[in-house]
Amino acid sequence: MSASIKDVASAAGVSVGTVSNVLNRPEKVSPATVERVHAVIGELGFVRNDAARQLRAGQSRSVGLVVLDSANPFFAEVARGAEERADAAGLSVLIGNSGQHGARENAYLDLFREQRVRGVLLTPSDPAAPAIAHVGIPLVLVDGESPDGRVSSVAVDDDEGGYLAARHLLERGRRRIAFVGGPLGVRQVADRLEGARRALAEVPEARLEVVEKPALTVFAGRQVGEEFAARRPEDRPDAAFCANDLLAVGLLQGAAILGAVQVPADLAIIGYDDIDFVQSTVVPLSSVRQPAREIGATAIELLLDALADPAAAPRRVRFRPELVVRASTRG
Ligand code: RIB
Hints:
alpha/beta; 434 Repressor (Amino-terminal Domain); Rossmann fold; six-stranded parallel sheet; 11 helices; 42% helix; elongated
């Protein structure tokens, strides 16, 4: 059984109140006593019972964050931005991964409600889901927007991002463009495709092929690349806009394998997110940058504002996407 605060007090020769002060208000305790109490905490392996503290204080020091895919570096950056801003406000971030499954998303929302977190940042698997407006704790949507604007949100204009990506390929003279996406039911994917369609509509002779995959992963992108490489050259696209960078990395691997397809000569490739990794791929990848860390930090700001003024109207923050050109679309 783990040591109690009474065990720590007894071993350090101080009162339980002094131990509590060392943990919560160390400025009220002499440095020597603080050091002695922490030494005893380490020796006894004491871990504070935050549930009891929350009951006394009536408030949690945590915020929940549910992301679509914790394996995607984009969301790691979002989480990092959120953690940095939350830490400045004395809060911790508890992270859950929905894997684009509504049931897992709801299970994490239930867990965070039970944990009495101060609020939740959510990348919704379906922003239009009715449950979004009735989560029952302060909520900010991240990388998604509620259609009726009833929930605060921070995201990038993915329609504009898709337009920028496709227009860039058209400006490079490409005319047989493939959109390599994940499930078109994912709002971000659908919006990026919509933007790409707008760009192609401006060039009558351009053609768009939509390749939908069940996931936005490197493996899915590689499958598409190998499929393109297996086609007759005249049946291949001359450019690909991937709905995120993981797909683009996989497409680059699959297309270039065995030297069947040269990037960008035979196939220009652009991704989306601008995760760090795409700068160092064998052919550095062009992408559409999302300010992931700023998105995470802004989501915490919106949550803190909602906590400070529960009656305030929801706010929708929408960042502009940025085209980043590298070798995979030059030439
Ligand atoms: O989760 C799928 C994609 O949506 C991520 O790569 C990121 O682009 C997000 O917006």
